[in-house]
Write a structure and sequence with these properties.
The structure is a homodimer of 313-residue chains. With 313 residues, chain A is of the alpha/beta class. The first copy, chain A, has 14 helices and five strands. Chain A binds a DNA duplex (30 and 30 nucleotides) through helix 2 and helix 5.
DNA sequence: AGCAATCTGCAAAGACCATTGCAATTGCAC
DNA sequence: GTGCAATTGCAATGGTCTTTGCAGATTGCT
């Protein structure tokens, strides 16, 4: 099953992956360590992360020379509910270590190439490259604790209002739509009477998220300040060019928004919206699962889709 | 496993391997091809290889909008005993393609993070990483000639209609908003009477762009087919799981949309919208410059902005 | 329109997977 | 040597996954 690599390649791949995984796994090991057969299971996970990422507990047990129950108990000793929970986390980390290498390789190679497909020729291709750079920057800079803070605030909120005008409305719309899908009362507003009506009922226990890049709409600043004055928690998703907005917010998510053309790019903003909703969905999986199931039922009932995916179990 | 290199050293190993995955699956497709639901399963395997590598037949069935038995039969049509046999081979190839990318990255040893922000811990952080991977894939695969074709069609069109429903509406909204900023008559519509009204006036000389990922709304397919029947040029921005939509379009922009959570990610879709508008702005710089100047004037006149950026040079 | 071939969902059946209660084993302290 | 706590394997249990027979629907050909 683990074939095809030369010895040198295998060592390199597993060594790099193991560096990330080993620190993480060791950090989860109890103070007194793992003894006997459990230690053998742990060593197997470190030495064969690829197989561990997809093998069953029985298969791993066979490889480690232990009983399948020992694999379950090792996972529990490491703080997981059981083998599937540990395996999922291990898989994410293992794949991420591979993917990061791949992205870094592509980035590095593309900087060197000239005239090849994908290299910066047309404005559209340059735009994609700029977005890729922005997303890589966001990935390096973003503090995931801020994401957690915002997600937990939204989860606990009576109601969340997202203020986004102009083209940024797309970010607000996407964030609100998927947050509702995740089971939370989140709405996006832009301008005019819609914003006035929304602000009239904002108060303590609510959350307001202001989304703005480059052009800062007057009503967005007013809304943020007003919400804060009324006791709501205020967060901002913005680029660095909005100190007035940052002043009103308890946390700010800084988003690269520089576009190749005149107007800003929303790609990193949407990625932040996606990350926020993913984090939100993880706050209360049962609630989100129920909301999704309800939405599936509505989709089926209204016959809106060209095809009908089976509802989740 | 990994085919021989071409003369052009500029091509990445991982790109070759990824193309290998598609080439390998297509080569196993029966001579008469796969039809109907099986084709949708195949496209899903191609568009979401990571999830296909680890997901059950039931999960893949749900994503593809088919019955679990159809996944089994698709695997059998491709020459495998059943889903586990196909999955095992697909996973090996997929992981090898990632591993090859990582091997290529060994020249740059700087990527090394342990517990740093951005490492795969929280769901939000994993979402960002997944989007980065998707954008890298898009960057490799996208044919900039397709971008040019669509941009020139929109520039020449009497009117452009963008059809996007659900959360994809954010992509349509962003595309339409910035295309109008660039000086072209582009509007986004979603559903209901708005769509009916827009379709009533679509004809020769117009352009319709359908945006859809994963869940394909019935009215989006109907609109695309109707627009094509009325002589409009039809383009699609979609992931690979929409053969019905692709059938109606003269060009298709394939967008990775696999999200970390249940719902698709719009990040790559927004990046495509951004690239399209950037390309559009370059078709007739004078026209776009004039449109932007007019918009600036409107912004100033209406006093909508908190601050007034200098006009572009 | 009729018919045959193909497709696809349903549901049953069997295999597989993971957890846990229980009991036997092992290691350590006294 | 003994007692006790921790470890570990066995097997039952419940759940999940995959395949396949069957029937209805769909498609293509004449």
């Amino acid at each position: 099953m683990i074939g095809g690599f030369g010895a040198g390649e295998r060592e390199l791949v597993s060594e790099r992956a193991t560096d990330d995984l080993e620190g993480w796994l060791r950090s989860r090991t109890p103070e007194r360590g793992l003894r006997g057969k459990s230690a053998a299971v742990l060593e197997l996970l470190l030495s064969q992360p690829r197989r561990a990422s997809y093998g069953s507990a029985g298969e791993l047990a066979q490889l480690a020379g232990v009983n399948v129950a020992t694999v379950t108990r090792t996972a529990q000793a490491l703080g997981f509910a059981g083998w599937p929970a540990l395996q999922q986390e291990l898989r994410a980390r293992y794949l991420s270590s591979l993917s990061a290498g791949q992205v870094a390789a592509e980035h590095d190679a593309e900087h060197r190439s000239t005239g090849a497909p994908g290299s910066p020729g047309s404005p559209g291709a340059r735009s994609l490259r700029r977005d890729l750079d922005g997303l890589a920057l966001l990935n390096r800079r973003l503090d995931e604790r801020v994401l957690s803070t915002i997600a937990e605030a939204v989860a606990a909120a009576r109601r969340t209002t997202i203020v986004a005008d102009g083209s940024y409305a797309a970010v607000g719309l996407a964030l609100a739509h998927n947050a509702r899908l995740a089971g939370y009362p989140v709405h996006a507003v832009t301008a005019g009477s819609e914003l006035v009506n929304a602000m009239a009922s904002v108060g303590e226990g609510d959350v307001l998220i202001a989304v703005s890049f480059w052009r800062l709409y007057e009503n967005t600043v007013l809304a943020a300040n007003e919400a804060r004055a009324r006791g709501a928690r205020v967060f901002a998703v913005t680029d660095a060019a909005s100190p007035a907005l940052a002043a009103a917010a308890e946390e700010v998510v800084l988003v690269p928004a520089e576009g190749e053309a005149f107007f800003p790019s929303l790609t990193a903003g949407i990625a932040v919206a996606q990350a926020l909703v993913t984090q939100l969905a993880a706050v209360d999986p049962a609630r989100t699962g129920a909301a999704i199931e309800a939405a599936e039922s509505m989709w089926t009932r209204f016959g809106l889709l060209h095809r009908h995916p089976a509802p989740p179990r």
